Amino acid sequence: MSPTVFTGKTCVVTGAGSGIGRALAENLAGRGARLALSDIDGSNLAETARRCESLGAHVSTALLDVSDRDAVSRYAEEVVAEFGIVHQVYNNAGIAYFGSVLESDFADMERVLAVDYWGVVHGTKAFLPHLVASGDGHVVNISSLFGLLSLGGQSAYNSAKFAVRGFTEALRQEMIAERLPVRVTCVHPGGIRTAVARNATTARGIDAAAVAEIFDRRLAFHSPEMAARAIVTGVRRRRARVVIGWEAKGLDMFQRVTGAGYQRVLAVTNPFTAAADRNRK
């Protein structure tokens, strides 16, 4: 491993207060990176900063709602003012939501897109000129397994994560075509044990706790630390795509082989749909 990939580099991580974001921050801290960490939850963010500082990292923190375009733009300027340069941006912040198209309110769907898609766009756009100026930039955008295939009840989340994938892959092509010094990676985690599912909102009448319990019991196979290691390895190896977890890789292959056929299979085996039907209030 070349230590220069991370040592002394300024790395921005959104959603750093817990889950994959916290694990990423700690992993990067252990590799000698300088960290600009943000989250909407100040107490969790402070704990992440404490852990990273105990590893010897230079850390700055900021409360940030990534759906607020102006706030993200101001934040980018503040990071550059403090660190002088930015090398890597990990657009990780996200939220989850469960509800069918028929029963979901527009406001709930719009909130998922505002955070999970527009948050990625805001972070990329705000920092991209600085990444180019660094001469050694890297954008890492967190999509999902649900950016590779769709699942009933996840239409809003699917929409956001497919959009992240399309945006990120287009950006990578632009950086290559324009010969700009910015590498681009799209990440597709499978079942990671984070607070995202437990904090998810749902359509009216659906028991959020029951849906979260299904995710934790049947789908949360991997630790955030495992996901962070996979992401950092992908960055080091300059991979365009990182798919995390045996189940994510298997389902990705399944949908490639079956084409649209996978949709009929998942329609009748979807554990979230069954849980929602049993637990509607």
TrEMBL record:
<dbReference type="Pfam" id="PF00106">
    <property type="entry name" value="adh_short"/>
</dbReference>
<protein>
    <submittedName>
        <fullName>SDR family NAD(P)-dependent oxidoreductase</fullName>
    </submittedName>
</protein>
<dbReference type="InterPro" id="IPR002347">
    <property type="entry name" value="SDR_fam"/>
</dbReference>
<dbReference type="InterPro" id="IPR020904">
    <property type="entry name" value="Sc_DH/Rdtase_CS"/>
</dbReference>
<keyword id="KW-0560">Oxidoreductase</keyword>
<dbReference type="InterPro" id="IPR036291">
    <property type="entry name" value="NAD(P)-bd_dom_sf"/>
</dbReference>
<comment type="similarity">
    <text>Belongs to the short-chain dehydrogenases/reductases (SDR) family.</text>
</comment>
<dbReference type="InterPro" id="IPR057326">
    <property type="entry name" value="KR_dom"/>
</dbReference>
<feature type="domain" description="Ketoreductase">
    <location>
        <begin position="9"/>
        <end position="195"/>
    </location>
</feature>
